[in-house]
Amino acid sequence: MNDDPMMVERWSTMAGVHRRMEARIEHELRRQIGLGVREFCALSVLRRGTWAGKGSLSLSDLAAAVGLSQSATSRLVARLQVHGLLVIRPSCDDRRSIEIELTDVAHNTVKAGVPVLHQAVSDAVGLLGAEGADAQLLGYLRGEPH
């Protein structure tokens, strides 16, 4: 087993970076479009499914994509439906399942949230650079080739 302290340090830094980025993204998304990270992520997944020609997605597909349990995803979907962002209907293939589809308002909300997400990530990475974070980690977060 390799006992590499630098790897542990990078992992610890990355975990902290993730927490800070998610907090910043959460704050900015709530402030600018009224949704949190999970809600925005769910809408983004559904939008990508639409673009990929999949049409609507099932609840289990959405749960797997956003990393939540099926019950937590059900509650998330219910909140988004109340806000007029989703249409839910029984599945044509399996009446026990539901299919979830974005409304036009949801498409516009995701479109408005993408620049917010990019700016929040960019700002968080900039702060890390100013704090002297690991150069390889910063390069990775900036999308620079290795």
Average the pLDDT over all residues and give the rounded result: 84
- Terminal CA distance reads 25 Å
Query: Structural class given helices, strands, pairing?
Result: mainly alpha
Low-confidence stretches: none
- Count the beta strands: 3
| Shape descriptor | elongated
Radius of gyration: 18 Å
* Main sheet characteristics: 3 strands, antiparallel
Topology pattern, helix = H, strand = E: HHEHHEEHH
Portion in beta strands? 5-15%
Helix content: 55-70%
**Strand order across the biggest sheet?**
1-3-2
Helical segment count: 6
Structure write-up:
With 146 residues, the protein is mostly helical. It contains six helices and three strands. A three-stranded antiparallel sheet has the order 1-3-2. β2 and β3 form a beta hairpin.
Task: Give the key terms.
about 150 residues; mainly alpha; three-stranded antiparallel sheet; 6 helices
Short description:
It is built from 6 helices and 3 strands, in the order H-H-E-H-H-E-E-H-H.
